[in-house]
Amino acid sequence: MTAKYLALLFASFTLATPVLAQTTESAVVAPNIRYVPYDPNGVVRLTGHTGYQMTLEFDEGERIETVGIGDSSGWQVTPNGAGTVMFLKPVGLPRTTNMSIITNMRRYNLELVAKSGLKIAPSQVTYAVRFTYPQKPVDETVSAAAPPIIATPPELWNRAYSYDGAKANVPDQVFDDGKATYFRFATGAATPAIFSITPDAGESIVNFAVRGPYVVVEQVAPQFVLRHGKEVTIIFNEAYAAPTPGADAPRERAKKKCGLFGCKSREAKP
């Protein structure tokens, strides 16, 4: 009796094993991966949904160098630390804009379309976009020799920066040369999205380039906001001084003072 019972138990176990393996393999199939053939003269239309993030994946050995976006207030754009993958997510109200990416090998033109993700089926959301390349590029970058990462001598760098908020986003190094702000994050650490503060106290994602170990923001500002998931950090430029008009700057236009007996010009203050 015992031997017969053990034989049946062993048979049922061996028959069940392939079923479990088949279930595991089928779970790997993902309809959310989109493959796009690279076309240097084309524009790739990407549709993002609020509440969902997508990644842009490039060729082997390809690194992101410069990113420009038309309306940066509606999109969060973040490269990984190595500059090989771009994370893209619509934020706020759905809107459409364009984005340009320049890597060490190619140029990409994209149209970004944002839609609400509240009523979309997950199977209809793009999680990753992988570019395919039929031939190896000849190197489409315009410069024959790469410019120095930082042209301004170190003695002219402004290093007077402080922070408030989540420590996880704090860069290993941050400074500016009067024209651009340089962020260096720890090797292997997630790179947060970087925003500047708009005049109405809102946030606008910045245009940036990846040069060597630095994420170079193409502006100097009194403060930046770094976001990664729920972690928020504010970076303060303690030495920031608003630019003042030079001697050759245009003067304020004379204003007319109107009264009961007509109008007369009133000189603006110098």
Structure report:
9% of the residues lie in helices and 39% in strands. It is built from one helix and 20 strands. The model is unreliable at 5-28 and 140-145 (pLDDT under 50). With 270 residues, it is mainly β. It has one helix spanning 2-26, and strands spanning 33-37, 44-49, 54-57, 64-69, 75-79, 85-90, 96-103, 107-115, 128-132, 161-165, 173-176, 181-184, 193-197, 203-205, 208-211, 214-217, 223-228, 231-237, 255-259, 262-266. Strand 13 and strand 14 form a beta hairpin. Among the domains are: 33-132, Immunoglobulin-like (Sandwich), CATH 2.60.40; 155-237, Sandwich (Immunoglobulin-like), CATH 2.60.40. Pfam families: CagX.
Topology overview:
Elements: H1 2-26, E1 33-37, E2 44-49, E3 54-57, E4 64-69, E5 75-79, E6 85-90, E7 96-103, E8 107-115, E9 128-132, E10 161-165, E11 173-176, E12 181-184, E13 193-197, E14 203-205, E15 208-211, E16 214-217, E17 223-228, E18 231-237, E19 255-259, E20 262-266
Parallel strand pairs: 1-9, 2-8, 3-9
Antiparallel strand pairs: 3-6, 4-7, 4-15, 5-6, 7-8, 10-18, 11-12, 12-16, 13-14, 13-17, 15-16, 17-18, 19-20
